[in-house]
Design brief:
This protein has 290 residues and is an alpha+beta fold. The chain has two domains: 108 residues, Immunoglobulin-like; 171 residues, C8orf32 fold. It is 20% helix and 41% strand. It contains seven helices and 14 strands. The strands form three sheets. Strands 1, 2, 3, 4, 5, 13 and 14 form a seven-stranded antiparallel β-sheet that branches. Strands 11-10-9-8-12 form a five-stranded antiparallel β-sheet, covered by helices on one side. Helix 4 crosses helix 7.
Length: 290
């Protein structure tokens, strides 16, 4: 097992005074069979008059805050200590099932079938089906096909920070052939849903490893996004198209939903006459002694 301390800081700097802020955050990791939170906390500055947590529809930990006082800056710092256990390898026992059988089993599970439906940011389309169909040949084992589709996205789309924004549509990503982890996750989800498979969007963190001979830089890690595909008996199997791999113990899950819209790290409403703001995000994923 591996123990991580994760510090995620988000800071907003506004050009004009903000009279009040109201927001919610998906920044605190979940407890899962292979992942256990030893501690987790969220600090908001200036101090809000109300800060509370609840569990959302998907079982994610969501923090809500209200800040009805004037401010020019707003920062949120989430600190968590998480134990992650390696995969048992059981998914390989069920990954040989033909993908058509997996598709046909989706409708029998209501809690799974909703992830095969269109969502606000990811809708099945002929273009997404054309991306996935050549990989999903008749009778092919489900995880072989998912792995190759992940590789196809990794190899044919360029990872370019800043190439897209949260308002960029999946059709625009297909046209530009470039994006970031959020976009690659949406592409994989869309391709799977276009074939009738159930797939969900997962947000969290990945530990980055410095290049040989270079020191690890604090704050150089990042929040990340990947995909879970449902396989009978095995359950949800995670795959990362950005790094072209199935997810292992270097990943920490924060939240999941139908697409990014369900689980943005931070969202909210501010009241101000200003139009511009600066956003600074720092993430540090540090291994600690077990």
């Amino acid at each position: 097992m591996t123990t991580y301390e994760i510090v995620h800081t988000t800071e907003y700097r506004y050009e004009s005074q903000v009279s009040s802020s109201y927001g919610e955050a998906h920044l605190l990791p979940r407890d899962l069979p292979r992942q256990r939170c030893l501690s987790r906390s969220l600090t908001v500055h200036p101090a809000p008059n109300d800060l509370r947590r609840r569990t959302d529809y998907f079982g994610n930990e969501v923090s809500f805050f209200t800040l009805p006082v004037p401010h020019f800056q707003l920062s949120l710092t989430a600190t968590s200590v998480v134990v992650v256990h390696p995969s048992s390898g059981d998914t390989s026992l069920f990954g040989d099932e033909p993908w058509e059988a997996v598709r046909d089993a989706v409708d029998d599970r209501a809690e799974v079938a909703e992830f095969a439906l269109d969502s606000q940011l990811v809708a099945a389309s002929p273009a997404l089906e054309a991306l996935a169909a050549p990989v999903f040949r008749p009778g092919r084992p489900i995880l072989d096909a998912v792995g190759e589709l992940s590789s196809t996205i990794h190899d044919t789309f360029e990872y370019v920070p800043g190439a897209t924004t949260i308002t960029t549509t999946i059709d625009q990503v297909l046209e530009r052939r470039a994006g970031v982890c959020q976009d690659f996750a949406h592409l994989l989800i869309g391709g799977l849903r276009s074939l009738g498979l159930a797939a969900r969007y997962v947000s969290g963190y990945i530990e980055t490893v410095p290049a040989p001979g270079q020191e690890r830089l604090e704050g150089a890690d990042r929040s990340h996004a990947w995909v879970s595909v449902w396989v009978p008996e095995a359950g949800w199997v995670d795959v990362d198209p950005t790094n072209d791999r199935f997810v292992g113990d270097r990943y920490v899950t924060t939240a999941w939903g139908r697409d990014y819209k369900d689980v943005p790290p931070v969202k909210g409403v501010i009241f101000t006459a200003g139009q511009d703001h600066e956003l600074h995000v720092s993430v540090d994923v540090q291994r600690v002694a077990d």
